[in-house]
TrEMBL record:
Positions of the Peptidase C14 caspase domain: 13-222
Region entry Disordered, spans: 251-294
Source organism superkingdom: Bacteria
Pfam families: Peptidase_C14, SBP_bac_11
Biased composition (Gly residues): 273-283
Organism, as annotated: Streptomyces thermogriseus
InterPro entries per UniProt: Caspase-like_dom_sf (IPR029030), Pept_C14_caspase (IPR011600), vWFA_dom_sf (IPR036465)
The protein, known as: Peptidase C14 caspase domain-containing protein
C-alpha cells in the first residue's frame, strides 16, 4: 500500500526556528554556548522562500522564529501544533546538546546555558522528548521534523522510545548521533540546509524519503565530514513505508505579504558543496534515490522498515537501542532484519558496550580517544563491523572514591533515593581512568568488606601532566629558576611581592584530582590549612573544574590580569572551550611540592557480572592496547600531555605546546602519595567546615495546586531538600523553616531546629512535618529574616554558611520594587551565599528576582531547566562535611 501522504489542499503549517544569536556565549560566560551561528539567518531566509514557492503552505501558513527564547519557542510550537490539520513541518537550526548518557537531545534556544559537571544540564533548552509530546497532540495527519544541529541523530533514539503518538511523526536529521558538525563560514546557509534547499527547489515532485536519499548523496559527493573527520551522514527515522510529499511543481513566487518582510539582498547564496548551479535561479538536477554505505549500520526489516539512524549511534545508547530494536521487531513479527556494516554489504551484530568513567578534567581527552578508537582498524572486523562501543562519562573524584569504597552494593542495586550512585555518578563502569593513580590506591587500601568490585590498575600511567601555577605574563618571573622546582608557597609569595593585589584561585578539591593535588602543595607550606584556604577563597561560587575557572576569569578583565590559577599544565594547550585570544596570556610555574596528574587505566570487575566476562575482557584489553599504543598516545599528545615514564617527562607531541609552557622543565614532581592526598582532603574539609545551612521551604498553598509539581515525589520541594542532606555530616549545623504567612504574623515556622543532626533523623522530621498550608508566602520577609539569622551565626569563625530557598515563585509579586531592593542590599551586606531553587523553568534568567538575589549574595540560582536535586546537593556538599 502506498503510504505517501499528499498534503495539497489541506490546512498545512510550517514552523521554521533558527537560533543565530545567543544571550550567553563563551568565553564571556563560562556556562554559555560555544558561540553565535550567523549561517542560521541564511537558513531561514532560504527555506522560507523555497516553501512559499512550493505552494503547500498558504500565505499565513509559515511562521518564522528568529532566535526565540525557550518560552517563545514553546508558545510558537504549541500554536503551530494546534492550527495544523494536514501537514505540520517543524524545522530547527541552532546548537544541539546531549547529556553524557546520550539518551536525550536538547535544542538550545536564545537564552540557553550549559551547566557543566558530572552530569551537564541545559537550562534554556527544550528536550526533544518534550517537543515530541507537544507534536503528538496535534490534529495534523503527518508531522515532519527537520533538525540541523550538532547531535541531531540522537533525536532518533528519543523518537524510538516515544511510543505514544510517534506513528505520524517523521524525522530528517542533519547528522548521525554523537557528532559535532561545522556550521560554515556564516556567509551562506549551513551545509546541510544548503543542500536541502537546493533539492526542494528542483521544480518537481519530491517526497521526504526521496529528499533524504538525495541530500545524503549530495553530502557524500561533496566530501562532507564531521568534526571527527568521518563521513557526514544525514539520518532518517519513521514508521515503515511512511512518507510525505514535500516538493511540488514550481509555482510563481508570491508577493511578500504585508507586515512579513524579510531581511536580505534578495539574491540566493552560492551552494556550499561546490556542486550544482548557484542559488535558486534554476532547477537542480535530480539525483536518483540511493542508499550509500553507512558509517555503522542500516536496519532493514522484512516489513520494509528503514531506521537509518542506528549506524550513527555509539556508546551506551547504541547498545541499548540495538537490544530494544531486536526485541521490538521480534515481538511484532518483523524478524529477518539485518545490520549492514560500513561497506554496505556485510551483516553486523550489535557491538559490545563498555562504560568508561573518568575525571571531569580528563573527559574531553578521553572522549576524543574513545571516538578515535571507535572508527579505528583495531575496532573493526574484517567484515567491516564495529567490535565495541564506549560510553564516556565523568563524576567528582570524591563521590567516585566514596562509592567504590563504601557503596558498591548500592551502585549495583540502588534501593534508596538517598544513596544511588547510578543516579549521581552513572552506570557501573567497566573501566575507570582517574586523573591520578593514587585514587585507585586509595580505594583498594580502604574498601569496605561488602565491596562488590575488584579494581585492577595498570602498572604504568597513560600520560603525565604537572599541576602548574598559571601566572599572568605581566606578573611572571623571568628567570627559569623562579619557575621550576620551588615550593608553591614561595611562588605565591613572589607573586604577591610583585603585585600585593594579586590573587590565586583553585577549583573544587572535592571534584577534580588536579585541584586536590594543588591542595597538597598549598597545605605543605602553610602552618594552618584554614589560613591557606582563605588565601585562595573566590568571591563567588567555587569553580568545579580548572577549565571552567580559566573560562570564567575573562568576564572581569582587571581580575583576570591579576589572578594566578592552579591548573593542570595540559589545559594551557587545549583543554578549555574559550578562545585563547580573549584571556590574559599566562606563564606556567612548576611547583616542586604539588604532585602531578598520572591518568591510569583501571579495569573494574563487578561481582555477578560474569555472564559475558570473556568477551568483555577481550574488548577492554583491545581498547587498553590501542590506548597505550601510538594512536592513543597521539590523542593525549594533541591535548598537551607528557610521556608518563620517559626521563624528564618530555611532551608527547612537540607540536602541541601550550602558551607559556616549558618544553622540558626540570625537575618535575612525581605522583602523589596516598597518605598525603587523604590528609589534604581531611584538612580541607576541616578548614572549610563544619558548615552552617539554613533551608527555607516554600509551604504556601500554590506548592500543591492541581497540575503543580512543587511538593510530592523526589522532584518536589521536600524531596529535593532531603536529597541534599547527603552533602552534610554530623558536625555540620543546619535547620529548616517552612515559609508561609503564619497566624502569628511571622513569615515562617521552624520545621527543624538549627543544630547538629543525624541525616536519617533530620530527613524523618522534615518528611513528617512538611505540609502545604492554606496561606501565601512572603519571600521578602522570609529572606530578610534568614539573612539576619545567618549573619549572626559565627560571623567571626569563618565557617562556611549557606541559605537555601526552595520555591515555586508563585508569591514573587511580593519580591519587586523596594522589597527586592531591600533583599538585594541585605544579601550584599550579610556575606552569606543564597542558593535560590525554583521549581519553575526560566526563573534564573538574567534580571529575574531569583537570579539577582543569588548574584548579589555570591550564591547560585537553580531552576527547573536543570537537575535540581543534583545541583542543590553539590552546593550543600561544598559547605558541609559529609561523611564517607
Amino acid at each position: 500500500m502506498d503510504r505517501r501522504f499528499d498534503p495539497r489542499g489541506r490546512v498545512n503549517r510550517a514552523l521554521l526556528v533558527g537560533v543565530s544569536e545567543y544571550d550567553h556565549t563563551k568565553p564571556a560566560e563560562s556556562d554559555g554556548v560555544p558561540g553565535d551561528l550567523p549561517a542560521v539567518r541564511h537558513n531561514l531566509e532560504r527555506l522560507e522562500a523555497v516553501l512559499r514557492r512550493g505552494g503547500l503552505f498558504g500565505e499565513d501558513g509559515i511562521t518564522v522564529c528568529h532566535s526565540p527564547s525557550l518560552d517563545e519557542f514553546s508558545e510558537e510550537l504549541r500554536t503551530a501544533a494546534h492550527r495544523a490539520e494536514g501537514l505540520l513541518l517543524c524545522y530547527f537550526a541552532g546548537h544541539g546538546a546531549v547529556p553524557s548518557a546520550g539518551d536525550e537531545l536538547f535544542l538550545q534556544m536564545r537564552n540557553a546555558r550549559v551547566v557543566a559537571g558530572g552530569r551537564a544540564v541545559f537550562p534554556g533548552a527544550d528536550a526533544f522528548s518534550a517537543v515530541l509530546t507537544v507534536l503528538a497532540g496535534s490534529r495534523a495527519e503527518r508531522i515532519v521534523v527537520i533538525l540541523d544541529c550538532c547531535y541531531a541523530g540522537n533525536a532518533a533514539k528519543v523518537w524510538h522510545d516515544f511510543t505514544d503518538g510517534r506513528q505520524k511523526i517523521l524525522l530528517l536529521m542533519s547528522v548521525q548521533a554523537n557528532r559535532l558538525i561545522d556550521s560554515g563560514d556564516g556567509t551562506r546557509a549551513t551545509p546541510f540546509t544548503e543542500e536541502l534547499v537546493q533539492l526542494l527547489d528542483s521544480g518537481g515532485e519530491l517526497s521526504l524519503l526521496e529528499l533524504f536519499e538525495q541530500v545524503r548523496g549530495a553530502m557524500a559527493e561533496a566530501g562532507r565530514v564531521t568534526t571527527l573527520e568521518d563521513p557526514w551522514e544525514p539520518q532518517f527515522a519513521g514508521e515503515p513505508g511512511m512518507d510525505v510529499l514535500l516538493g511540488t511543481a514550481r509555482e510563481e513566487e508570491p508577493a511578500q505579504p504585508s507586515g512579513q518582510s524579510r531581511t536580505g539582498s534578495g539574491k540566493e547564496d552560492a551552494a556550499s558543496g561546490g556542486s550544482g548551479p548557484k542559488g535558486g535561479g534554476g532547477p537542480r538536477p535530480r539525483r536518483p534515490p540511493r542508499i550509500p554505505g553507512l558509517g555503522g549500520g542500516l536496519l532493514w526489516g522484512r516489513a520494509g522498515a528503514v531506521v537509518r539512524w542506528f549506524g550513527g549511534l555509539r556508546g551506551r545508547v547504541r547498545g541499548a537501542v540495538s537490544t530494544l530494536l531486536v526485541l521490538a521487531l521480534a515481538g511484532l513479527g518483523l524478524g529477518g532484519y539485518e545490520l549492514i556494516g560500513p561497506g554496505g554489504d556485510r551483516s553486523c551484530a550489535p557491538p559490545l558496550e563498555l562504560r568508561l568513567l573518568t575525571d571531569p578534567e580528563l573527559e574531553p581527552t578521553v572522549r576524543a580517544a574513545a571516538d578515535r578508537y571507535f572508527v579505528s582498524d583495531a575496532n573493526t572486523t574484517e567484515d567491516g563491523c564495529r567490535r565495541t562501543g564506549i560510553t564516556v562519562y565523568s563524576a567528582g573524584v570524591s563521590s567516585v572514591v566514596t562509592a567504590l569504597r563504601r557503596h558498591t552494593d548500592a551502585w549495583q542495586d540502588p534501593s534508596t533515593e538517598d544513596d544511588n550512585p547510578q543516579r549521581d555518578i552513572g552506570p557501573q563502569p567497566d573501566v575507570w581512568i582517574p586523573a591520578s593513580a593514587t585514587e585507585a590506591v586509595r580505594v583498594i587500601a580502604d574498601q569496605a568488606a561488602r565491596s562488590l568490585v575488584v579494581l585492577e590498575p595498570a602498572t604504568e600511567p597513560l600520560a603525565y601532566s604537572p599541576v602548574v601555577l598559571a601566572v599572568p605574563q605581566d606578573l611572571a618571573g623571568e628567570a627559569l629558576g623562579e619557575r621550576v622546582g620551588r615550593p608553591l608557597s614561595r611562588l605565591i609569595e613572589d607573586l604577591r611581592r610583585r603585585d600585593p593585589g594579586a590573587r590565586v584561585l583553585r577549583p573544587d578539591p572535592e571534584f577534580t584530582d588536579s585541584a586536590l593535588l594543588a591542595t597538597v602543595g598549598l597545605y605543605s607550606g602553610a602552618a594552618d590549612p584554614r589560613t591557606a584556604e582563605q588565601s585562595v577563597r573566590p568571591t563567588g561560587r567555587l569553580s568545579p573544574t580548572a577549565a571552567e575557572l580559566l573560562c570564567t576569569l575573562p568576564s572581569d578583565r582587571a581580575a583576570d590580569a591579576r589572578t594566578a590559577v592552579l591548573v593542570p599544565e595540559f589545559l594551557l594547550r587545549s583543554g578549555v572551550g574559550c578562545a585563547r585570544s580573549t584571556r590574559v596570556p599566562r606563564t606556567a610555574a612548576y611547583p616542586g611540592d604539588v604532585p602531578a596528574l598520572t591518568p591510569t587505566f583501571v579495569r573494574v570487575r563487578w561481582q555477578d557480572g560474569d555472564r559475558d566476562a570473556a568477551e568483555r575482557d577481550a574488548a577492554v584489553e583491545r581498547f587498553r592496547t590501542w590506548l597505550t599504543g601510538a594512536e592513543g598516545r597521539a590523542v593525549f599528545g594533541a591535548a598537551g600531555f607528557r610521556h608518563a615514564t620517559e626521563f624528564g617527562h618530555p611532551l608527547l607531541d612537540d607540536e602541541h605546546v601550550g602558551t607559556g609552557v616549558l618544553r622540558l622543565p626540570r625537575p618535575l614532581p612525581g605522583p602523589a602519595e596516598r597518605t598525603s592526598v587523604e590528609s589534604a582532603l581531611e584538612q580541607y574539609r576541616r578548614a572549610r567546615g563544619p558548615g552552617r545551612v539554613l533551608y527555607l521551604l516554600d509551604s504556601s498553598s500554590s506548592m500543591d495546586q492541581e497540575g503543580a509539581r512543587g511538593w510530592d515525589g523526589p522532584g518536589g520541594g521536600p524531596g529535593i531538600l532531603t536529597q541534599s542532606l547527603g552533602g552534610l555530616g554530623t558536625q555540620d549545623e543546619y535547620g529548616v523553616w517552612a515559609v508561609y504567612d503564619t497566624l502569628g504574623g511571622r513569615p515562617y515556622e521552624v520545621l527543624l531546629p538549627f543544630g547538629q543532626h543525624r541525616r536519617a533523623e533530620a530527613a524523618q522530621v522534615v518528611e513528617a512535618g512538611a505540609a502545604v498550608r492554606d496561606a501565601e508566602a512572603d519571600p521578602h520577609a522570609a529572606l530578610l529574616a534568614a539573612l539576619d539569622d545567618m549573619a549572626g551565626r559565627g560571623a567571626d569563625d569563618e565557617r562556611p554558611r549557606l541559605i537555601v530557598y526552595i520555591t515555586d515563585d508563585e508569591d514573587n509579586n511580593r519580591l519587586t520594587g523596594r522589597n527586592l531592593d531591600e533583599v538585594l542590599a541585605r544579601a550584599r551586606q550579610a556575606g552569606v551565599p543564597v542558593v535560590m531553587v525554583s521549581l519553575v523553568a526560566g526563573s534564573c534568567d538574567r534580571g529575574r528576582p531569583d537570579a539577582r538575589i543569588a548574584e548579589a549574595s555570591g550564591g547560585r540560582c537553580l531552576d527547573a531547566g536543570e537537575d535540581l536535586g543534583r545541583g542543590l546537593y553539590d552546593e550543600v556538599a561544598r559547605v558541609g562535611m559529609k561523611e564517607e
